[in-house]
Amino acid sequence: MSAIVGEIVEPYAQALMSVAKSNNLTNEIGDNIRSLLELMENSEQLRKFLANPVIKPDDKKAVIGQIFREEMNPYLRNFTLLLVDRGRISFLEPIVKQYLALLRQFNKTVLAEVTSTVELNEGQRNHLSEKVKGMTGADHVEITTKIDPALIGGVIIKVGSRVVDASLRGQLRRIGIRLNA
After folding, report:
1. Where are the alpha helices (DSSP H) in 57-167?
2. Level-2 CATH architecture, domain 2-105
3. GO MF terms on file (predicted)?
4. CATH 1.10.520.20 residue ranges in the chain?
5. In what order do the strands lie in the sheet with 140-147?
6. Which residue in 1, 87, 128, 160 is deepest, having the highest Cβ count within 10 Å?
7. How many helices (H) and strands (E) does the chain have?
8. What is the pLDDT of residue 2?
């Protein structure tokens, strides 16, 4: 299955990136995609509607037209309608996530997934951003956050396959391992 997804997701994401680059809209389309992903994450009904093969393409296009109106870039709207025409709309989410990965690469940006016990304030985000830039040599850092009170304190930072566990829970676990050794 993952090979099929790769064969579908990558070319469509590359095509969208190509259109975005040639029209100097890479970041605008990226912002639109983040809004779209947020909408999809918050609406299981929308995800199921778009993925349902029984629903007519014209009905899907009408809903997409309502969603995209003026807020979304016309290139992204047309791209999404093309996915409906080609029967690929169920791959929308992985395609646009791949676009964001290509955008980060294009902008020399890394994605840092930060898990903390509480929501981070702006100062903490900036501090983490500088730390991640130092670790990776990237020009920019995009931070996504998750809250996990079980960490007790501190943070866990994941950048690609690298994980830095600076949580209190992680420190206690490491102490426990040393004591048992």
Report:
1. 57-68, 74-85, 92-106, 122-136
2. Orthogonal Bundle (1.10)
3. hydrolase activity; proton-transporting ATP synthase activity, rotational mechanism
4. 2-105
5. 140-147, 109-116, 154-159, 162-167
6. 128
7. 8, 4
8. 63
